[in-house]
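Pipeline run #58 for the internal structure catalog. This entry was flagged by the ingest filter as a single-chain record with no existing model, so it goes straight to prediction. Upstream metadata was stripped on purpose; only the residue string is passed forward. Reviewer on rotation: M.T. Logging verbosity set to normal.
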Amino acid sequence: MSLTDEEALGCLDHKLRLIDDRVTAVVRGYQTGLYLCGAGGLGKSYSVYRQLQNLECDVRSFNSRMTALGLFRALDKAPDAVHVLEDMERIVNDRDAQGVLRSALWSQGDRDRVVTWTSSAGEQRVTFRGGIVMLANRPLGDLPELRALASRIAVHKLEISDAEMAAHMRRIAGQGWTRYQFKLDAEKCSEVCEQVISGCRRASCPMDLRLLDNACTDYLLWESGNAHLHWHDLVTTRVQQAAAHFCHEVSTLSREERKARERELVRQIIQETSDVQERERRWEQMTDKRKSAFYDRKREVESREFDL
């Protein structure tokens, strides 16, 4: 039996409250850092920044690219702030940056978290008292240095099922949509939302908030008379392209990465329905694989051997 929107939102809100608690722990000093990962478009950044705003703390935001020295200087400039590093997976693979992060996020006993940077120009040091929140699409790697980093902070992977995302999108759409000078009322936004949801299900494409956001712009383009095609066609094409990108992304994964993706899908299907035939139908539709593969992945999930 599929989850109702109310049940799905209950599951989702529990996950979002956990993120709120992790962020609060960093702001209040109970935890020095948080590494939050998950697929794009789930609302990770929105959830984190909303809670930081609620807590009215000093926040410094960075994205795209940062060197190890750039990180050290950022911490030196604002040693008491919460530093948010968004979409900067490369920084955790930089050995120099790994050292800065480990020193900034942990100390032995009651010692200060002192970070040093020594070069030909001499030694620089900063006592860091703030927190670091890292947002990424991929989990921390399996390098020993990164395992040491993970032991110093909270590490969490946000996973949202299609049922939860559909219910979440409907809830958001019911409040209307605004971006800069553009606005869409709740009724029209809800209509767009249903078009996105049905399109994603037909194309076996994962739903996300970015699709809804961009679909609203398609509607406004059509409504203003600036589009040749109907907004239905614009949204359908957008969803199809997202589905094609998703399939290409999966095809480039290693065998173990594909299995991990499939286990996530099995968890999602099991959560959303208890009907055996419906589970098998969804699996075959979304993976184009036989049901025997579904039960292989199901056994792996139930063994809990692959839990984070």
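catalog note: The chain has three domains: 5-157, 162-251, 255-303.
catalog note: Strands lie at 33-37, 59-63, 82-86, 114-119, 122-127, 131-136, 154-157, 177-179, 182-184.
status: ready for reviewer M.T.
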